[in-house]
Structure formats: C-alpha cells, structure tokens
Design a protein that fits this description.
The structure is a homodimer. By secondary structure, chain A is α+β, with helices and mostly antiparallel strands. The first copy, chain A, contains five helices and ten strands, in the order E-H-E-E-E-E-H-E-H-H-E-H-E-E-E. Chain A has a single domain (about 5-180), classed as Pnp Oxidase, Chain A (Roll), CATH 2.30.110. Helix content of chain A is about 15%, strand content about 40%. In chain A, strands 1, 2, 3, 4, 5, 6, 7 and 8 form an eight-stranded antiparallel beta sheet that branches. In chain A, strands 9-10 form a two-stranded antiparallel ribbon. In chain A, a hairpin with a 2-residue loop joins strand 9 and strand 10 (about 165-175). The interface between A and B is large, with 59 and 59 residues.
Chain lengths: ~180, ~180
C-alpha cells in the first residue's frame, strides 16, 4: 500500500525543476487520455505557476484546451517502459489506460485522473493561454500536490533525446553555502 | 586541454530537457555578469527555441533585456560550489568573474562570454519578449552549441530546492520501444 501526503503547491519546484519526464493526463468528452511530456518549467512559487508545451499535433492538446485542466504525474524508473509506450502511441487511436493497463484515481480539484503508479501527482488548471496560439505553450496553476511518503530519493527519468534517458542520481546538500533568504522552497 | 565540438542548435534538448542548473552569462555596458538558473524549458527544435525565467529582481534581467543576448553554460558537479556561490551573490554588488575566479572565452555570435569550465555552452539571442512584462519569461533562440568531447556521461546538477541538488545518474536506452519517427533529435 502506498502512503500519500500533500505538500503545498508552492513546492512544485521540488518535482519539476530537476526536469523529469512527466505523464500529463487529461479528461474531456467523457474520456481520459495521457501523454509523455518533458518540455516544462517552473514560473512562480505563489501562485504556483508552471508552463508546459503540448503540441497541437498531440491528441491531448485539444483535450487540455477544452477542459482547461490536467494532472502532471511524475513517474520513477520502475515505470519507464510504460512511459515510453505512452509517448509512442496516440489517444486518437486507442484508450491508452486500457491498452497499457495504467491505474488511475479521481483527483480532488480537476476531472483529469491521478496516476497512483507515479511518485507525485500535481493537479493543474490553465492560468493563461496567451502563448498557446504561437507556441503551444500552456501556463498552468498547480492546485494540489500529492506525494508518496517513500522512497525518499526516487529514481526519476529525464529524457535526453534519441530514445535515451538519464536516471536521477544521488542527492547532495550545499545548504551551508546558501544565504538564509534563498532557502525554504 | 578540453577538446570541443559543435552540435546543431536543434540538439539543445539533449542538454536542457533533462533539467540541469545552467549558468546564464550576459554582457552589457562593458561588463560581464553570470547567474545560476534552473527555470528553463525547450519550446521548438527548428528554430531552436527555449524559454527561461530571469526575475526582474536579478541583476542579469536588465542586462539580458538591453543586450538581447546571453550564453547558457551547463556545469558539472565539479563546479557545484561555484554554481551555488554564483547564485548567492549579485552582479549589482560585485564582479562575479573576478570574485569567484570564473574563466571565460569569447563567444562566436554574441557578446556574452562562454564559460569553458562548463561541459556545454549555448549561445542565445532573444526571439520574443512578449512574456517578459507579465512573467519575466524570455523566449530565446539557440544560435550555437559547443560541447566538450568528454566525458560521455557528465554528472550535471539539478536543483530540488532548499539548498539540495540531485546529480544526474546513469543513462539507459529504450530506443527499441520508440517509433522510428520519434527518434533523431
């Protein structure tokens, strides 16, 4: 049994800033979809803003735009093969949840599902779509973050192109070199 | 002696998509400056577009905006203490290059310097400043990428907040699970 706890949306940087591949899930027209996504960044702590690029070539693009909501789920290396398979088929052709046997649970603030096989789940709502027409870039507000209580140092997956991934490695602290006002988040 | 080679700007994702901390260098008013930055993402292969958030509270913000140019330099863990020190002082107060003994070399397309202690250097020019007023978000075009020929699997640093870093770990391939048209970049 996985145990979960919530952390404040302002802590989104702990999960997204190191740059892992995430699984972006949407719900629209009575159906769920999920895509693999690595083009995202943090924009602001409060409100907790992030941006992500979802190309109009992806089936998720219209689903995200119409529903205005999604979840971002951060998988570990245990799920890597599924992560790759999700990224190499389209929700236009099949129900990825059924075809790839992906578990899902209801979210609290959005209709898109949470993926409990992932270490962390972020519930998000579109905050600003001004850059969608030009760049397919969505600015999202993180409404809630749910995290598994263990392991403490999950092995996330980071895409480096051409079918290759970097797995996240050991953690080190340099807290002693920081100004106190630079710490906290 | 470090040996260098250039890779196409469209390969920027290999360095930025996994989410490392970068050193963003600028040149304006006859002076160089450098900041530590982790809020960036990839937007497009061709033209090679990336976005990055440089807060107006950073001395580099005005320098980037006025000059329209910068370099992004990707450090390895060998430079971690310097990376943290760069992020905990301001170019408004001191010359970071002198104070922290940071090497620099001329770039080819921009006036901002390259940092040869870093594994890779990206020369960038502002492509679109439409999101600067609202989010301090700059959209940049990558003009050139210079990379050290070794090591093949550098240990980059990824910030996870509160003074802690994740070091990039081992690389794995899942090329066999990709559709051929999803590979290449």
């Amino acid at each position: 049994m996985v145990k979960w706890h919530d952390v404040p949306p302002s802590h989104a940087r702990q999960f997204l800033e190191p740059g892992p591949v995430v699984l972006l899930a949407t719900h629209d027209g009575g159906r769920d979809n999920v895509m693999t996504m690595g083009w995202h960044q943090v924009l602001e702590f409060t409100p907790a803003l992030i941006s992500c690029l979802v190309s109009r070539g992806n089936h998720s693009h219209a689903m995200l735009r119409r529903s205005g909501e999604c979840t971002m789920n951060v998988p570990t290396s245990a799920l890597l093969d599924t992560v790759v398979r999700i990224g190499n088929c389209s929700g236009a052709d099949l129900d990825k949840f059924a075809a790839l046997d992906i578990a899902r649970e209801p979210a609290r603030h959005v209709a898109a599902p949470l993926l409990p096989q992932c270490h962390a789940q972020l519930e998000c709502r579109i905050h600003d779509d001004a850059m969608v027409a030009k760049y397919d870039l969505f600015i999202l507000e993180v409404l809630r973050i749910r995290v598994a209580t263990s392991p403490r140092e999950p092995e996330f997956v980071h895409y480096i192109g051409d079918g290759k991934f970097m797995l996240s490695g050991r953690r080190v602290s340099r807290k002693r070199l920081f100004r106190p006002d630079m710490l906290g988040n």
